[in-house]
Amino acid sequence: MNRYRCWNTLRRQVRPELIRKRWYSKYLAHEIPFERLAHQCVFAFDIKMSQKANLIIHPTLEDTARKFQIRPLDYSSDQDDTTDIIYYAETQESDSLIQKVDISCPATTRSHEINVHLPPNIDLIVSILSGQVEILNKVEGNISIAVGHGDVSVHKIRGDNVQMKTNHGSIKIANVVEGVDVQLGASQIICKRLLAENCDVRLLKGRHASEFGAIYGTATRIHSLSKGLLSIGNVHGYMRVLGEAMDALDIVSVNGALEVEDTGGNCCATVHFDSCSPGAKSSIMVGGDIQVSLNPNTPIDVEIHGARIETPNCEFIEHTTEQLDDDYAILTGRLTALSQPKNCSVTSGKINVDTRRDLALQTSFFANREENQKSDEINRHSDLSALSNPSDFKLLLHSPCGIVRLQQFDWMKRISNRVNSKL
Fold it and tell me: Where would I find the DUF4097 domain in this sequence (predicted)?
């Protein structure tokens, strides 16, 4: 065997086999051998055309259901002629298993819908110029979805790296998105639960209201260009919110640290702090009114700047108030922890609140990483002084033109106030 033939033989053994085929839509179901898909096979959809293409992904474990189905949006079911919708595909195989499938549609004359039945354990890459992306069930793997003009709708996503972005549209998460690094970007985001070590959320320009049911994150950053309402249920961990012209910010409960800054002049903020991270500093700086409530068991140092300052039923160990102008004052002081009523206990009922708060982030995803870092955490905390001192909890509230109102009440009183305000 000469050198040239030997080199070609070795190259074929090392490089994955590449097969390129041209498909018409009615043959897609027969051309992809789904039974030979590798675990965490990569599916890449690249649809760069001006016509609308709706991609619907059906994660399933049934082998017989794994197929493609393409239907024109402007035809009825009995006139399903798709011969003019041409797709290209390229598969990369190794050890008789398909490692990656690249699917592209360079051009077509009609809008259409693509239904794809795939295994739930895949890596997914989707790039669509115009259209919608919908994932109907759970997918586990690295996810990257980019849409030029259209909406993204998912049910449950879990992976190390999750990216979902749309330049003109919304993102709706029906159940949960969980990952190490999560990036979301849209004009509007409706999310039930978000779990991530590092999360970056970008809200684009517009007046749409965005809503998050619960956010569990080591570090969450939200940059809002929207002029709508940003509503968040429960925040566990550190969160930073940077806005330019938000209408309002509403956070039901914070367990950790929060930094809010809006450069517009009309943003109003309503926040309840249920517990503070040891040594953390929280701040809220907006142009409108601020309403903050604190758990009465949390001693904390506060500094308040506002056109008018109200602290009803707050008990200070010490505080000073400076009236710098007719419409601007500064209050600094230290709030004391209020004693609980005799008939009230944080451990009353079926749920131990303190225990559940400590276990809030201990899902299967975060627990594995905490086990690996346990020794480092012990060594690091052994070098720190005690963080239970009241002076270690600090809160800054700043509104140059608004009313700043600070109160102390527990979570039951907070729920009662919210219910009464909606009646």
Answer: 108-198
DSSP code string of 217-249:
EEEEEEEE---SEEEEEEEEEEEEEEESS-SEE
Same domain, 270 and 369: yes
Residue whose pair of structure tokens reads 């011969």 in the numeric block:
83
Q: How high is the pLDDT of residue 327? A: 85
Minimal CA–CA distance to 334: which of 301, 295, 298? 301
pTM for this prediction: 0.82
In the three-class reduction of DSSP (H, G, I as helix; E, B as strand; rest coil), residue 282 is classed as strand
Domain that holds residue 318: 227-423
Q: What is the pLDDT of residue 404?
A: 97
92-to-18, 37, 101, 205, 331 alpha-carbon distances in Å: 5, 10, 7, 40, 66
The residues, ordered by sequence, that sit 6+ positions from 348 with a Cβ below 8 Å of its Cβ are: none
| pLDDT for residue 50 | 81
Residue 159 half-sphere exposure toward CB, CA atoms < 13 A: 22
Domain boundary (121, 150, 179) is at 150
Total count of domains within the chain:
2
The runs of H, that is alpha helices, within 254-383 are 353-358, 364-372, 374-382
Evaluate if residue 411 carries a pLDDT over 70: no
416 Cα distance to chain centroid: 28
Q: Give percent of the chain above pLDDT 90.
A: 51
Q: Residue 331: pLDDT band by 50, 70, 90 thresholds?
A: very high
**Is 195 a residue whose pLDDT tops 90?**
yes
Distance CA 263, CA 361 (A): 32
